[in-house]
Specification:
One of its GO terms (cellular component) is plasma membrane. It is a multi-pass membrane protein. It comes from Geodermatophilus sabuli. One of its GO terms (molecular function) is transmembrane transporter activity. The protein is globular. The protein is built from 19 helices and no strands. By secondary structure, it is an all-alpha fold. 81% of the residues lie in helices and 0% in strands.
Length: 430
């Protein structure tokens, strides 16, 4: 299709198609991500023989999502969202294959490398939300972004419940039980990568730039461009609050969530039964993360991004208190706590991501978004790697308490931005 034909397209119609394609991709991709997340820590624990390794396994995936987000953003900046997202899912296919091989060989180093690559799928799911906002009208950015986040519900709620069947599949093919889940992920990620390559046309970012006359940061050295873009975000009160919201929300969520399956595993019981109960609790958590996203997007557009960030802080604190006081076998209390944790994450991610998007122009936007996801992932990686030692030292309650303390910086920045003003032509953080 020619450039002239792209420009002649109705942007509203292209936006609807873009949101539909992205929603389908992240719905299926979410299945592959969450089935792996559910058993990733348990697999690392079994391979290494210690609970501390469970935190390392989850952290490898989180760190992979963070680090890989930057080159994927650069690819998107140069060649469009389609190229960036398809590349990311291809990396996730390779990571999933390595994880299965590591399970067979009982090799922790290879497992960590595989989980690092597996994290690329998480990076793609997060960057897809930004792609949904490329062509959206300013007053509808929160809604557009939230619809793609919401679509993740389908696969993400089903994914954890495939942990048990995945174990059965692994045994049927002579694989370690927990390795079967990642075999499912291999197929899922390959289908998503191919689907995005074929269907995400015209590319939303490239079309948005043609319509608005914007450029890219492709001529700037990658590291310098990322630092410059993140500084631009931080210089704007909207960006400062948004960046803090996504980093804190993700760190708290990961800190509590990744240690929950290990905590529940201490309740004892048959492996198959325990996995299914863990899968159910994680499904409730994932439902909180994604199921109510359209309502959160509506709240961010109508009540304001700033008010939604405040709701996020309150929910994260309540979640840490409820989950942190639950016994390993208290599945109902843990499920309720993780539901609130997911809701708090959703509010922080959607409102914060919208603020970040609005704080920079089209030319810096993909790089700024990639830098934001890098910081978000690094914060979560620290929370994840600390989870194992904290669990060993003081139990699950200590993990939840330390995670709750991370909300304090968000409250401080939220209060500080109340009196800030943004550059001419902008608005206060709403």
């Amino acid at each position: 299709m020619t450039t002239q034909a792209h420009v002649a397209l109705d942007p509203a119609r292209v936006q609807r198609r873009t949101v539909g394609v992205l929603s389908g991709g992240v719905a299926l991709g979410g299945l592959g991500v969450t089935v792996g997340i559910t058993v990733g820590g348990l697999l690392a624990r079994d391979v290494a023989g210690t609970d501390t390794a469970a935190g390392l396994g989850q952290t490898a995936g989180v760190l992979g999502a963070a680090v890989i987000a930057v080159p994927l953003a650069r690819i998107s900046d140069r060649a469009g969202r389609r190229a960036g997202l398809a590349t990311g899912y291809a990396i996730a296919v390779l990571g999933s294959v390595l994880t299965v091989v590591a399970a067979v060989l009982t090799s922790l180093p290879l497992l960590l490398v595989g989980l690092f690559g597996f994290g690329a799928a998480t990076a793609c799911g997060l960057q897809a939300r930004y792609a949904a906002a490329d062509l959206a009208a300013p007053e509808h950015r929160g809604r557009a972004l939230s619809l793609v986040v919401w679509a993740t519900t389908v696969g993400s709620v089903l994914g954890p419940n495939l942990a048990g069947p995945g174990a059965d599949l692994g045994r049927a093919f002579g694989l370690p039980a927990l390795g079967g889940a990642f075999a499912i992920s291999v197929v899922v990620f390959a289908v998503v990568a191919l689907g995005l390559l074929l269907l995400l046309r015209p590319d939303p970012l490239l079309l948005a730039r043609r319509l608005r006359g914007g450029g890219s940061a492709a001529g700037v050295r990658p590291r310098r461009a990322t630092v410059s873009a993140v500084r631009a975000v931080w210089a704007d009160p909207r960006g400062r609050l948004g960046l803090t919201a996504v980093v804190v929300s993700h760190a708290v969520m990961v800190g509590v969530m990744v240690m929950t399956p290990v905590h529940m595993g201490h309740a004892g019981g048959a492996e198959g039964t325990t996995l299914r109960v863990i899968g159910l609790v994680i499904s409730v958590h994932v439902a909180g993360m994604y199921l109510f996203s359209p309502l959160v997007g509506h709240l961010a557009d109508r009540a304001g991004r700033r008010a939604t960030v405040a709701v996020a802080a309150g929910l994260l604190l309540a979640a840490a208190a409820l989950a942190g006081t639950a016994a390993p076998g208290a599945a109902a209390q843990l499920g309720a706590g993780l539901l609130l944790l997911g809701l708090g994450w959703s509010c922080g991610l959607i409102a914060g991501s919208t603020l970040v998007t609005e704080s920079v122009d089209d030319g810096q936007r993909p790089t700024a978004q990639g830098g934001t996801d890098l910081l978000m992932g690094l914060g979560a990686a620290v929370a994840g790697v600390a989870g194992g030692p904290l669990l060993a030292a003081g139990g699950y309650g200590l993990v939840a308490g330390v995670s709750a303390a991370l909300v304090v910086p968000l409250v401080v920045v939220w209060a500080a931005t109340a009196a800030d003003r943004v550059p001419a032509g902008g608005q206060r953080p709403r």
